[in-house]
Amino acid sequence: MDKNNCNILLKNILESNLKNYQKGKVASYIPALNKVEPNLAAVVMVDMTGEVYKAGDWNYKFTIQSISKPIVLALAILELGEEAVFKRVGVEPTGEEFNSINKLVGHPKPFNPMINAGAIAVTSLIRENKSENSFNILLKFFKNLFGNKDLKVDEEVYKSEKMTADRNRSLAYFLKDHRIIKGDVEKSLDLYFKQCSIKVDTVDIARASSVFANRGIDPITGDRIISKKVASIVRSIMLTCGMYDRSGSFAIDVGIPAKSGVSGGILAPVKNRFGIGVFGPSLDNSGNSVVGMNVLKSLSEELNLHML
Ligand SMILES: NC(=O)CC[C@H](N)C(=O)O
């Protein structure tokens, strides 16, 4: 695709969808997230030759939040194998909010790894080894997958979440009581808060997305980061569960696997075509970026990206 034309297309799509930020709200249940300007917006695409197209506030930094969930899922499967991971977490949608406790009662194995309960269970599987603590193992994998050696934790957001995470703490202790989490609960929670607080920009999100789109190979460096099978598992779970209880309507409208985070990012890999990252901090009531979803819908229509 001609680079100039594609950059213009992205700019036009972003501008025509920007006003939708007024239909949502910036997350405030983690107090440090509430400081952002609601009308920031960005879209970045990486194609399978490694070309990068971008528009808007693409270098604005935000915390990755739930977009870390598919990444840690990939790491856990690589470290422990599919069987061990899916013994602790399922692969079915819940139709509930991302931090819901409802479905755990009577069914302590979390429904899927994209909701908080399932993600905390997956994070608890990342164990330290003789030479490295579990956060370093996790961060090293993120740096590799994002092609960015400078990734680090936003300390303010990390502390803010840690101090206000009563819901996540209750989910984790419930999982421990049912032996879904086996180790130290506070350690698993701390690792989860840190993974959610890693600072990224929309280019980082698009690059990580391009690895999933390119079936495990980074299109910019040509390095294999994850196996084809792991890329396929993660894309599949994103399609059915990545947008929480909007996943079904998002699949109909947009037709691209996607994972959102409460700071406003969405990672959306289009197999064999593009890694897409979008950003807009104003959220709908399911916790998904309003501008981000609209931009993805327009892109899907303009570039014929719907998979079904
Ligand atoms: N949907 C999200 O991005 C949620 C992530 C956030 N850190 C939480 O656990 O509540």
Automatic annotation (TrEMBL):
Gene3D superfamilies: DD-peptidase/beta-lactamase superfamily (3.40.710.10). Its EC number is 3.5.1.2. HAMAP family: Glutaminase. GO terms for molecular function: glutaminase activity. Keywords: Acetylation, Hydrolase. The lineage of its organism: Bacteria, Bacillati, Bacillota, Clostridia, Halanaerobiales. It comes from Halonatronomonas betaini. It comes from the Bacteria. Belongs to the glutaminase family. It catalyses: L-glutamine + H2O = L-glutamate + NH4(+). This is Glutaminase. Transmembrane segments: none annotated.
